[in-house]
Amino acid sequence: MPAAVLSPPGSHTLTEAADGKVTITEFLDYQCPACAGYFTNITSKLEKDYAGKVTFVVRNFPLGMHPLAVPAARAAESAAEQGKFSEMYHVLYENFQQWAVTPDGQSVSEDAERANELFRGYAQRIGLDVAKFTADLTAPAVQARIDKDTADGKTAGVTGTPALFVNGQRFEPSGQTFADVDKQLRELVDRELAE
């Protein structure tokens, strides 16, 4: 899949490699439990371990089954408007249980009002201008960014999340555990770095 689809200029990155040799692109849904599991067990560690060695691109792909996926994507994009995308990305996943699931922890939350209140708290915590952040949540440019990411994801054949690509190749893990998947992903990245 061409880079123009997976990681067009201006894409949000968590880490960047000066040599541009390896690019990992993740299409994600912030309210997706599997994405949160990947963040906790795989991608947050990969981000630290390969900092400066790979370019890690994050794209939005909110799924219809998750009612707070779009509000969360808007929160991340609104933070990006103030240069704090990475900080909001991290805080959304680190606090997944707080906003993304019901208080009893049994199902996906639909409480957008509660979520947006929490998002404003996160915005304050990471040092954003909260008034600007709140205004940006409903800005057409923010929604357009999410729509473009989603359209590119569909072009790339994404139907679910998380969807990872390494140098344009879809990563299709066969592992049954996060540890297995982590190992497979690192082997693929290491192979690409060695070429």
UniProtKB/TrEMBL annotation:
<keyword id="KW-0732">Signal</keyword>
<dbReference type="InterPro" id="IPR036249">
    <property type="entry name" value="Thioredoxin-like_sf"/>
</dbReference>
<comment type="similarity">
    <text>Belongs to the thioredoxin family. DsbA subfamily.</text>
</comment>
<keyword id="KW-1015">Disulfide bond</keyword>
<keyword id="KW-0676">Redox-active center</keyword>
<feature type="domain" description="Thioredoxin">
    <location>
        <begin position="1"/>
        <end position="194"/>
    </location>
</feature>
<protein>
    <submittedName>
        <fullName>DsbA family protein</fullName>
    </submittedName>
</protein>
<dbReference type="Pfam" id="PF13462">
    <property type="entry name" value="Thioredoxin_4"/>
</dbReference>
<dbReference type="InterPro" id="IPR013766">
    <property type="entry name" value="Thioredoxin_domain"/>
</dbReference>
<keyword id="KW-0560">Oxidoreductase</keyword>
<dbReference type="InterPro" id="IPR012336">
    <property type="entry name" value="Thioredoxin-like_fold"/>
</dbReference>
